Every structure is written in C-alpha cells, then in structure tokens.
C-alpha cells in the first residue's frame, strides 16, 4: 500500500514524457506521505492482549480454530507438526483468531507476517505454517524445541 501511494505522483508525472525522462523520475527519491488509508495502527489494547497471550506459555500458536477442531488446513498442519515433534501440552497454548477479528488483523501487524497460523517460542515469533513445515523437514525445529526445553520428557528405560 505504501509503495502504491508513493509511486502515484511519479506515474502522474510520466504520462506525457519520453521514456528517457521516465527513468530519471523513478531514480529520484519520492516523498512518502502516509494517509489514514495507507496504514493501520495496532491499538494499545490489542498489542497488550497479544503480549499477554505470548507470555502465557513457552509455545504459543495463534490459529484458526482450536487444536481439537482446526478450521483451516494450515492450522491443522501446524498442530500436527507440533504433536509429531512432541511438544509438551503443559508448555503449549493455542488461541483461536476467528473469535476476535481485531486480534486476527492486529496479529498480522504485530508480527509483520501476513498469514495465520503464527507460532511463538519463548515470546519470539518463529513463523507461519510454511516456516514451521520447512523447519520440521530439515530437522531445525526439533533442535530449537529441545534447546528451549518444551518437549515431553523422555521416559527413563525400565530396568529388570
């Protein structure tokens, strides 16, 4: 949106110029003036709610639906990956963004990530389903989860 707003004056200037002059206009910096339609401010209340949510547990997933009934394939895949990795349910929290539209939109601005689900580990944004899937496939997710001590403890072998 900002790019479109900032380029609009340059496009207006180019409508009657030869091609060599057009290149000069786009090589010069354009002043960017944000209008209310160009940006959305994350409310203090929404920011505080997200901060509080990511502090509840070491592993937090903002998703569509709940872990028991995910409402989209990406949320389902994220839950399955966390389950396969062995994330301790006592160290995990999930929040249904479909229950609160302001949370859903505010979360995208908070993380600067356009999609849901979003995973946070120890209050740090990890990524969406695509990042989670990639980390799962290359083994990086297992290492990060183990390093942060969020996996179900392995049972000690039983002796004779």
Overview features:
160 residues, alpha+beta, 4-stranded mixed β-sheet, 7 helices, 47% helix, 11% strand, disordered N terminus
SSE layout:
Elements: H1 2-14, H2 19-27, H3 44-54, E1 59-63, H4 73-85, E2 92-96, H5 101-111, E3 118-121, E4 124-127, H6 129-138, H7 140-147
Parallel strand pairs: 1-2
Antiparallel strand pairs: 1-3, 3-4
Helix pairs in contact: 3-5, 4-6
Explain how this protein is built.
The protein contains seven helices and four strands. It has helices spanning 2-14, 19-27, 44-54, 73-85, 101-111, 129-138, 140-147; strands spanning 59-63, 92-96, 118-121, 124-127. Helix 4 packs parallel to helix 6. The radius of gyration is 22 Å and the shape is globular. The termini are far apart.
Name the structural class. Answer: alpha+beta
Task: Give the overall pLDDT as a whole number.
Answer: 81
| Distance between the amino and carboxyl termini | 67 Å
Low-confidence stretches: 1-17, 19-23, 30-39
Measured by DSSP, the beta-strand proportion falls in 5-15%
Shape, please? globular
Largest sheet: 4 strands, mixed
Helix percentage: 40-55%
CA gyration radius, whole angstroms = 22 Å
Number of strands: 4
Strand order of the largest sheet: 2-1-3-4
Count of helices? 7
Give, in order, the helices and strands.
Answer: HHHEHEHEEHH
């Amino acid at each position: 949106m900002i790019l479109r707003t900032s380029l609009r004056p340059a496009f207006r200037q180019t409508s009657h110029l030869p091609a060599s002059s057009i290149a000069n206009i786009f090589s010069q910096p354009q002043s960017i003036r944000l209008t209310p339609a160009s940006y959305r401010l994350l409310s203090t209340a929404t920011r505080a709610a997200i901060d509080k949510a990511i502090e509840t547990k070491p592993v937090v997933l903002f998703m569509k639906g709940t872990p028991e009934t995910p409402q989209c394939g990406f949320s389902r895949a994220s839950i399955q990956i966390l389950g396969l990795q062995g994330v301790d349910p006592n160290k995990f929290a999930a929040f249904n963004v479909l229950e609160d539209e302001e949370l859903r939109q505010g979360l995208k601005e908070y993380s600067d990530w356009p999609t849901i689900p979003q995973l946070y580990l120890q209050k740090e944004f990890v990524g969406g389903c695509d990042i989670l899937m990639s980390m799962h496939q290359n083994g990086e997710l297992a290492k990060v989860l183990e390093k942060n001590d969020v996996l179900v403890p392995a049972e000690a072998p039983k002796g004779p």
